[in-house]
């Protein structure tokens, strides 16, 4: 990470803008409603990220120039570069932590988490210790979603489930994308370990909306049988006025 070679945000945007497509921008903007879109396809963004690494540009400097209102493609370009950078665990974590200030939508969060899967799987225990404090309600919602989606991607096994259930029971799920991430993760854990997840759902302290959304996500999955889906629906919570 020791480098003096820098590139400005404007220079990066100019590189990406050469490849922007108006029709692709219109299409992507409908999906990524919370992001400002240039209209550059993902393979091109990834190639640009690899070029940043090849030329040994200072990623920290580039992160510091950007903010959450920067183009999605510039932020995603950095996310790719961070995920692909050949760094020590500590240096990679430093970059990931600095990137948190650029998390402002589910698209950039989930994309970043997916990009980091190989790194997480190669450093599973150490990375879990890193994300543990990120579940705390005091953190910004999209940082918390980052932790939950990483858990969904890599930590749905029995070894981690009880810890995660405890986190979810205490979670402030008032933010929509935190609420949805929790429900999604519980559904994934059900598909990994049905019996343990059912026992949790019988006595959880989740809000009614998140509990029932988790059940809905389970029934939407192709993995459970029709019989299992019928049973899981019986675990739905009812509000007091029903």
TrEMBL record:
InterPro entries: ARM-type_fold, DNA_alkylation
Listed SUPFAM superfamilies: ARM repeat
Signal peptide: none
Name recorded for this polypeptide: DNA alkylation repair protein
Species for this entry: Succinivibrio faecicola
């Amino acid at each position: 990470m020791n480098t003096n070679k820098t590139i400005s945000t404007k220079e990066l945007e100019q590189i990406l803008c050469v490849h922007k497509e108006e029709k692709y921008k219109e299409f992507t903007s409908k999906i990524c409603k919370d992001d400002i879109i240039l209209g550059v396809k993902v393979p091109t963004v990834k190639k640009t990220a690899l070029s940043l690494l090849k030329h040994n540009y200072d990623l920290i400097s580039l992160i510091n120039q950007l903010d959450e209102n920067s183009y999605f493609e510039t932020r995603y370009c950095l996310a790719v570069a961070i995920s692909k950078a050949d760094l020590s665990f500590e240096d990679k974590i430093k970059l990931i932590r600095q990137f948190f200030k650029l998390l402002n939508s589910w698209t950039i969060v989930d994309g970043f988490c997916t990009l980091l899967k190989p790194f997480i799987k190669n450093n599973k225990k150490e990375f879990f210790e890193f994300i543990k404090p990120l579940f705390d309600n005091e953190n910004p919602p999209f940082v918390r979603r980052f932790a939950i989606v990483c858990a969904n991607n890599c930590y749905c096994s029995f070894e981690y489930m009880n810890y995660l259930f405890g986190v979810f029971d205490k979670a402030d799920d008032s933010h929509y994308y935190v609420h949805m991430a929790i429900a999604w993760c519980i559904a994934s854990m059900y598909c990994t370990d049905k019996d343990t997840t059912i026992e949790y759902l019988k006595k959880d302290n989740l809000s009614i909306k998140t509990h029932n959304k988790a059940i809905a996500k389970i029934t939407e999955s192709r993995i459970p049988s029709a019989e299992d889906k019928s049973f899981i629906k019986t675990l739905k919570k009812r509000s007091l006025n029903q």
